Amino acid sequence: MQSSCRTDRFIPHPAFGRNKIISSGPSTLQSFAVVVFAGLTLSNASAADTPIESVSPATIRIQDLATTVQKSLVVIEGSGRSGNLRGEGSGFAIAADLIATARHVIGEGRKVSILLPDNSRVPVLQVHSQMAHLDMVILKTAPHGLPVLKLSELATTVGHPIVALGHPHGLRNSVVSGIISGYQEIDKITMIQVAMAIEPGNSGGPVVDHEGAVIGMITLKSTASDNIGFAIPIQHLRGLIESPNPIPMERWVTIGALDRKRWRPIGGADWKQRAGRILVKGTGSGFGGRTLCILNESTELPVEIEVDVKLDHESGAAGLTMHSDGGQRHYGFYPSAGNIRFTRFDGPDVNHWSILHNEPHSAYRPNDWNTIKVRIEEQSFTCSLNDETICHIKDSVVPHGRLGLAAFRGTQAAFRNLTIAPSIPSRHPSKEHRLQIANLLNQVVVGQPLPGKMTSALIPFGNGVGSILESRAKQLETQAVLIRQLADDVHTARILQQLITVLNPPPGEDSDSTSPDLLRAALLLAELDNKEIRADDYAVRVDLMAEDIRSRLASHSDEQQRLVALDDWLFEDNGFRGSEQQYYASSNSYLNEVIDDREGLPIALSVLYMELAKRLNLKILGIGLPGHFIVKFTPTDSELKAEWIDVFNRGRRLTDEDLNRHLSERGLRMSPAFLEPQSTKQIIERMIRNLLGLAEGERNDRRVLRYLELLVGISPDNPEFRAKRMEMRARTDHPEAAIEDAEWFIEHQSEGIDIYQLKQFKARLESKLN
User: Fold this and answer.
1) Which side of the chain, N or C, has fewer Cβ within a 10 Å radius?
2) Positive or negative CA dihedral for 446, 447, 451, 452?
3) What is the 3-state secondary structure (H, E, C) of 344-359?
């Protein structure tokens, strides 16, 4: 045995024992914040994992400095042309109501949002001062309560030690230490050249000296090197502070701004106008999140108002408003949580509201555009939905007022085709025309060209034919999704059947935790997500790997020699290793990719190690420590000692002290249960759990369900797995399957389950099937 394998200190991977997935490990952070000179890279995500013995006094000083400065650091979110998040940058407090950042972070004429260290937001009131050629801007906010950073009054020189803070690539509060490496003139401005990596998200962040005073602001990234950035000297920021040119945000935000000559928002929320649509998002300040956007022009009765509306979620509510007085009084007609509602609003809260109609209607199209129209007369309203009359309301409590749009409960909604006229003809084909269009569409055959006269035949039906064609296309797309889901379900069921067979061999067959069944089961997990692989081919490859190792041994080699040969072949000759740079990647759990790429998670590498050892007549058992999987060599030769082996760390041998330290770092004490050998079923379950955690972090419902089907299949009496599967089956439109799980809980009366709520849940699922 090589001495290096025996004496290397056990260094746990930073991810061991974490309960949730994070976006990066230490190596990824290093790629964002490389220290070229004698610097140090820290971040909140990894500082707690630094071994105590490796922290120097210089590190501690910078940690203290970083902790202080980070209290003044904010995230600046700039919106794109569509109103969605365009990107993030950094900013810092320079007064009780002022935040400094780089101008390119907020964009030109865009909405800006500021996220404070406690994840709350502070309103931006105005662009207090800005200068495009300096790439600097100062934002005036409501009082933010953050400590104010001191602006340095000292001249800086080359070699001066500095620290930069920011949020590169969304990694909060990253800290980089370096030096001033020079000065460069860019666009006639003398910039500070810093010897450190500057990445997206760093822009606008402060560069401070070791006293915590700001000496510059990160604004540009060098195109010559990834490890060189630039900061603008802080004296330019002083000039902006002394000579403000304030612009209110309502004037600054021009992209997507409403035409104020026509529209007047009431009650907060964010109303925009983009590409022929009116968009609303955010919660209004009125009771129930009510917000209005009313037209400035007046109308004479009778009049009709019509608009297409689409909600981001069917639990929301948004639509038309009539007779608004510009305050609390108006009528509203809108879809709300699946119903179509007509309400009279007489005051500020629900005690002054009267719901005059509230019913579901078959004409409503969930998750789609719906046309709502109201004909307003002196004392009545006639309401229709998608050309079907819904209700006729006689009410004249609220006097004649303005028309407009409304939203409630923080609903994000879009409106289009707003029309106001004494009479509005239908934009949609009649029932007779819809039947004719359907007959024409039946002539479309998959795999064949469209009939030559199809276009000319559809033109006479008018603009409404487009919505019918789009609706048919969506139906086909929905059907395609269901068929793909069915294919996925069949594949999962097939893998599950094979997995159950492998984990439950017939009596008389070898089924201990080191049998070849473990290899077959692990390869089935890989085949679950990679339909094209052939598990048998990789089983043969493992046999060939073992044969190659065996060919290097003498015919009468002992256990120690075989173990050394195994280690040499894996770690020295073929470079198998733990995957540190991309620890949280599904590939690290797929045994075929671990074999191909020669890196993986501790448990996947341990499975390969155990299977090769099995073929070399070595007894290697899997040990499932909390947060880290290792193996145990159990010799048959009484003169040899058992060894704890960390396959992830290239076969390092672990002492009892190493194991105790690993557990104590996780707040645990040694227990014999932690060192019990794992069965094949336990190992496979743990591998599935790893994949499940990744899928949950990615919010990939189909993959989550896939792994839960396997977990319940191999452990049918586990209530945790079954409860999660029931929820995911319901969420992914498998109501009948979810009902089966609900019935299981009702039958077994599992502890902690509210049977009444469960029966209500089952009833809701059954209603979907009726």
Assistant:
1) C
2) positive
3) EECCCCHHHEEEEEEE
Contact predicate 710/496, CB 8 Å: yes
Tell me, rounded to whole angstroms, the distance of Cα 596 from its chain centroid: 29
Structural tokens at position 294: 């009313």
- Residue length, the chain? 770
Q: Write the pLDDT tens digit of every residue in 316-358.
A: 999 999 999 999 999 999 999 999 999 999 999 999 999 999 9
The verdict on 242 and 273 lying in the same domain is no
Tell me whether residue 30 is in a domain.
no
Report the interhelical angle of 680-698 vs 602-615 (nearest 10°). Answer: 150
Mean per-residue pLDDT of the chain: 83
Residue type, 380: S
For residues 341 and 313, state if they share a domain. yes
Sign of CA dihedral 494, 498, 499, 500: positive
Token reading at 20: 């949730």
pLDDT in tens, 444-456: 888 888 887 888 8
Strands (E), 229-345: 229-233, 247-248, 263-266, 268-274, 277-284, 291-295, 303-311, 317-324, 330-336, 339-345
> Among 633, 656, 685, which residue terminates a domain?
685
Give the number of domains in the chain: 4
Compute the 3-state secondary structure of the chain and give helix, strand, coil in percent, each to the nearest 5.
35, 30, 35
Q: What is the mean pLDDT of residues 727-752?
A: 89
Helix (H, G, I), strand (E, B) or coil at 63: helix
* Residue 200, pLDDT score: 62
Q: Is there a domain that residue 756 lies in?
A: no
Which residues, 6+ apart, have CB-to-CB distance to 550 below 8 Å?
615, 616
The tokens for 545 are 């790997």
**665: alpha, beta or left? (left if phi > 0; alpha if psi -120 to 50):** alpha
Distance CA 472, CA 478 (A): 10
Measuring CA to CA, which residue among 583, 551, 574, 589 is closest to residue 650? 574
Grade residue 427 by pLDDT with cuts at 50, 70 and 90.
confident
For 753, what's the count of Cα atoms within 13 Å in the CB-facing half-sphere? 22
The pLDDT-based confidence of 610 (bands split at 50, 70, 90) is very high
Residues 267 and 376 in one domain: yes
* Spatial contact of 353 and 345, defined as CB atoms under 8 Å apart: yes
Secondary structure of residue 535 in the 3-state scheme: helix
Q: Is 512 exposed, middle or buried (0-12, 13-18, 19+ CB in 10 A)?
A: exposed
pTM of the model: 0.54
Summarised one tens digit per residue, pLDDT across range 358-402 is 999 999 999 999 999 999 999 999 999 998 999 999 999 999 999
Tell me the residue range of the domain where 299 lies. Answer: 263-421
For the domain that residue 381 is a member of, what is the CATH number?
A: 2.60.120.560
Percent of the chain predicted with pLDDT > 90 = 51
CA 471 to CA 565: how far, in whole Å? 65
Distance from C-alpha of 106 to C-alpha of 85, rounded to nearest angstrom = 11
Token pair 């014999």 is at which residue?
672
